[in-house]
Design brief:
With about 210 residues, the protein is an all-alpha fold. Helix content is about 80%, strand content about 0%. Helix 2 packs parallel to helix 5 and helix 4 packs parallel to helix 8. It is globular. The protein starts with a helix and ends with a helix.
């Protein structure tokens, strides 16, 4: 019954389309120096998954997040080729199918894990506080990884990070008991998130 409910979830398709649009937007940012940092940042994708997964049942959250991130990754690589052709007419640009397939696979796994995790945001429980702390931790850790708070591209990345934190806290709710749990967890979880956000770079160095 739950599986059929997911199959009927029209928002999965909506999330896939949203992923395609955000992927093309990230590809556009890649060729705009002031915004290029966003094309290499995990923050916008973490924020997007929070939006589609928070306060949703676990199966729908996982399916929506997978559709979102797989669509975004595929559109990002295709969009890079499209915008490269616009910026440098006539110049060759090769899209590696193996690379696209590899990162779509990683996006699927990441979408499932994050969707399952973030669906608990908003719950009046320790798992809900942990999910909110993890989302904030990933946003902040990724901004630190990209040196977004000190470099000349700090404004767009800082804005995304701040917006993401506000979205997470809003979705979690501002009840005192929820905020207390969040305050206990957010620092250690952010430290752990700093390790997690370095994994894509490590994976890419090994497999590509």
């Amino acid at each position: 019954m739950a599986v059929s409910g997911v199959a009927r979830d029209r928002h999965v398709l909506t999330c896939g389309v949203a992923g395609l649009l955000t992927g093309f937007l990230a590809a556009y940012c890649y060729y705009w120096p002031a915004l290029r940092v966003l094309a290499h940042s995990l923050g916008p994708w973490v924020l997007a998954v929070v939006v589609v997964a928070a306060r949703t049942d676990v199966r729908r959250a996982g399916a929506r997040s997978v559709a979102l991130l797989v669509g975004a990754v595929a559109a990002f690589y295709v969009g890079k080729k499209v915008f490269y052709g616009i910026k440098y007419p006539g110049m060759p640009y090769h899209v590696s199918v193996e690379t696209v397939v590899l990162w779509c696979g990683f996006a699927g796994v990441a979408g499932l894990l994050l969707g399952v995790l973030f669906h608990a945001i908003g719950a009046d429980t320790w798992p809900g506080a942990f999910a909110a702390s993890a989302a904030v931790g990933l946003l902040v850790a990724d901004a630190i990884r990209k040196d977004g708070f000190t470099s000349d591209h700090g404004l767009p990345l800082g804005a995304v990070t701040l917006a993401g934190v506000l979205v997470v806290l809003t979705r979690q709710g501002f009840r005192p008991d929820r905020l207390k749990r969040f305050a206990v967890l957010v620092v250690p979880v952010t430290v752990a998130s700093w390790v997690v956000v370095h994994l894509p770079d490590a994976i890419e160095a090994v497999v590509l």
